[in-house]
Amino acid sequence: MSQDNLIKVSCTVCRKVNYYSHKNKKTLKNRIELQKFCSHCGKHTKHKESK
Asked: Which CATH class is domain 3-50?
């Protein structure tokens, strides 16, 4: 993945960074929010893009 489009996706419950993803920053201005599995919580939770 290219470093300029790389984002961190962290759990909203435990605040741990579980995933790395990429997005087109020219077309998507606001932060993304995904429903992903958190291995620390052990369940599916909402994950938000972090800095």
From this structure: mainly beta
